[in-house]
Amino acid sequence: EEWKFAHEESPGDVQDLYAQEFKRLVEEKTNGEVEVTIYTYGQLGTENDITELTAAGAVQFSNASPGHLGTFVPEIQVFGVPYLLSQDNAVNKEVLSSSPTIYDGMAKDFESKGLKLYTMYPEGEMVWTTKKPVTQPSEFDGVKFRVMTSPILIESYEAFGADPVALPWGEVYSGLQTSVIDAQVNPIFFIESAKFYEVTDYLIYAGQQQYTTTIVSNAGFYDGLSDDRKKLLADVKAELDGFIYEAQEKANSAALARIQEAKPDIKVIRLSDEQRAAFKKASAGIGDSLIKEVGGDTAEVLKALRKEFGTSM
Ligand code: 6CS
């Protein structure tokens, strides 16, 4: 039996580390009865294509990050609301791996789209890379800022003062090179592996968001599994919650060192609490916009998550 697993990143990136370890554990625990085939970014299409392939059952598992999922499962955009997650990644790990708001509540939003929510994990703090320093919203004026395709991200960067442009990440390097865009945001490991630091000059830590990702499976596929196989998947998830948390931390700190070695004159700016407060204030209405646009129980979900992350306003 073959399980296809598609993700959104390059070989050796955080999602690939997860997929490789998932493959190793599933094959070991099924004594080779299940073989997992991994597809990296681009092999089966873009971020949005692999979600559709999973919903259609052509792929059994895939990463479907909230940043790309906003038009397919609109409720998931709650993870794009600025400053929702904790500054303490141990708290984020705990909530993302076991929150009842996510696994009992939001899981239903996935089910209605033919997807079974498997797991969520953080990939690291999102860092802005820009061609000029930005320490306050007014300095974003006229900056064409690439974001993922979820509508809430576009609204957030508008609120921060920038001109957001939604693009698949495969177009970001050349976009920065040719000044179609001037800036983008991603975790450090990804800025290094996709080489975005080569075509920007500043790394700016604003503390506004962690990159979060979701792994989903095809719902019909999951429902058809035996109880033993479902238990196996739950066991693998529990083992990988700890594994990926450490793996992403290591990947991010090693990548920052490598960027600074490859480009010694890159400038690192860590916004002060006061500077962060200005961006926080500028984007304070984003939660309410989401509630208005998505409706349903979004208000309750946002409130419950803020409580779990310890970031209630
Ligand atoms: O910026 C993006 O679109 C990509 N960033 C990461 C960290 N993973 C995959 C995603 O598509």
Could you spell the SSE succession in H and E letters? Answer: EHEHEHHHEEHEHEHEEHHEHHH
Number of helices: 13
Q: Helix/strand/pairing class, anyone?
A: alpha/beta
Q: How many domain regions?
A: 1
State which percent range the strand residues make up: 15-25%
CATH architecture call: 3-Layer(aba) Sandwich
Give the class-level CATH name.
Alpha Beta
Largest sheet: 10 strands, mixed
* Global geometry: globular
CATH topology: D-Maltodextrin-Binding Protein, domain 2
Ligand species: ligand 6CS
Poorly predicted parts: none
Could you tell me how far the N terminus lies from the C terminus, measured between alpha carbons in angstroms?
49 Å
Brief synopsis:
With 313 residues, the chain is an alpha/beta fold.
Helix/strand layout:
Blueprint: E1 2-6, H1 14-29, E2 35-39, H2 47-56, E3 61-63, H3 66-69, H4 89-98, H5 100-111, E4 115-130, E5 144-147, H6 151-160, E6 163-166, H7 172-177, E7 183-187, H8 188-193, E8 202-205, E9 210-218, H9 219-223, H10 227-262, E10 267-270, H11 273-282, H12 286-294, H13 298-309
Parallel strand pairs: 1-2, 1-3, 5-6, 5-7, 8-10
Antiparallel strand pairs: 3-9, 4-7, 4-8, 4-9
Helix pairs in contact: 1-10
Written overview of the protein:
α1 (14-29) packs antiparallel against α10 (227-262). The protein is α/β, with parallel strands linked by helices and 313 residues long. The chain has a single domain, classed as 3-Layer(aba) Sandwich (D-Maltodextrin-Binding Protein, domain 2). α1 (14-29) links the parallel β1 (2-6) and β2. The model has no long low-confidence stretch (mean pLDDT 96). It has helices at residues 14-29, 47-56, 66-69, 89-98, 100-111, 151-160, 172-177, 188-193, 219-223, 227-262, 273-282, 286-294, 298-309, and strands at residues 2-6, 35-39, 61-63, 115-130, 144-147, 163-166, 183-187, 202-205, 210-218, 267-270. Helices cover 47% and strands 19% of the residues. Strands 1, 2, 3, 4, 5, 6, 7, 8, 9 and 10 form a ten-stranded mixed β-sheet that branches. It is built from 13 helices and ten strands. The site of ligand 6CS has 11 residues, from β7.
